[in-house]
Write the structure tokens for this entry.
Amino acid sequence: MKTKIVLILIYLAINQVFSQNLLKTKWKFKTGDDVSWARIEHDDSQWSDILSGQYWEAQGIKNYDGFAWYRMSVLIPSLLKKDTERMGGLLLNLGAIDDVDYTYFNGQLIGKTGEIPPNLKAAYADNRNYEIPVSSVLWDKINVIAVRVFDATGGGGMYSENTSFSVKGTADNFKLNIEFPIQNQVFTASGDAFFGVKLQSSIAENFSGKIKINVFSDFADSITSVEKNISIKPNKPQTIPIVLKSLKPGIYNGIAYFESAIANKKLQFSFAIQPEKISSPTDAMLDFDAYWNRAKKELEAVDPQYNIIKIDSLSKGNRDVFVVEMRSLGNVLVRGWYAIPKKSGKYPAILHLQGYSSFNKLDWAYPNDDIIVFVLNIRGHGFSKDNIDPGFPGYLQHSIADKEMYIYRGAYMDTRRALDFMLTRAEIDKSKIAVEGGSQGGALSIAAAALNNDRVSLCIPHVPFLSDFKDYFKIGRWPGSEFVEYVNKNPQVGWAKVYETLSYIDIKNLAPYIKCPTFMGIGLIDDICPPHINFAAYNQIKTPKEYIVYPKNGHGLPAEYHTLKYVWLKKQWGMK
């Protein structure tokens, strides 16, 4: 009996070491950027202390956007060496980081998620899991984890509560992948979908298990379930073909499971079936045209009072940069950045529009000197908060009980006022004005192209917001959660009034008014602005249009997209 108890205690002790989390919550922290800070020998003793699991704004780093570094020194005991060698290394899980990270171990880059400017790709919702090879570990010595973070706007930093650094578990030695024959995972020819579930093991033994596939609509309706037995040999991948027949047009989400006696794995994926046939009819009110014509007339009555201020510190390259101040609907003061080539002549121009809650900055827009750029901050955003500043949350619901005063009525007219300004400029080729932006900026682009269809020659939205609200609130948790809270606190307003007001600014209802070519970027796993609501608007556009889908991306698209959209723009305008 004693022997059995001792063996159990030894097993529990070994298991405790094996699963030990070497990561703490307290890190060293410094704003700024210097890649030498990744080095193991760098002295961080004068850095501030900060906790993971909270945005840095919640820890005294107020209103800071940009680069910052986290560092942690970790003693890794040689007691773990045998298990680490057997399991193939250590696993560093940093959770989600807002927005981009480059992560180093003992001075070596071990992984990155997202892209830093100038080709910013935000990845604030992606979990970071990075493998540390055995050869990189300094046993019984201090090892240094350094995380370079870039935050574009809003909250920043390592905000996930559940982080860990430990020996890879058994499940980490299995790779579960979904392989599609179509790169973008969009099936356009029919309602049939087909893909392979690939499983590979690096464990030196044979075993059996089970593959399960569950597929749901983007409204979470169960579509089908597939289950198959599987036998696996070491380092010999096996692929199980899956065929799903006669699916309706739409976006589908799947979960693949591998289950066995020694390990379990789970993988989520998405695909689309004939998305250009997704049906989401317009629901505009009878006075929709009169509503927007009235807004335009009210704007015309406001003296714009354009004020152009040169910013010498930003005018050192091939462009001169100005801040433009102007009065918009309701005499609200709004501002933007205006960059023009120093070489005289007439140039095409882009109105760059911003994401929700962000401070729209010049370095997020087209960077070269062959196109003029106007980077607008709509009311309540960036440096356009003098007269209206509802804050976030609260912006979406500001004056929603009165459709004439609703904040997006004014915001859409801010984009028209920006175009008014651009049409006064002698250096702009009035026949070549484009609107572009992502998320809220995508919605503003569609609205600007629709409400100024005699002025805008190209529309380039990506992952657009503010679309197809009744379906949107069923599919996504946010922003519907804010409206639920608002209606609960304001029952006298009610859902009927909310949906009525939203129908006037719904880009699905505005899209049919677009008269210019449109190019849209979509992230297939976007849970902020799901692809269903993107296509709800896209499918209402009647003019020549194109879309590109990124199946592995959510609300942030890759740098490739931001290159392609300008290639498309220049082709449309006949530019080199």
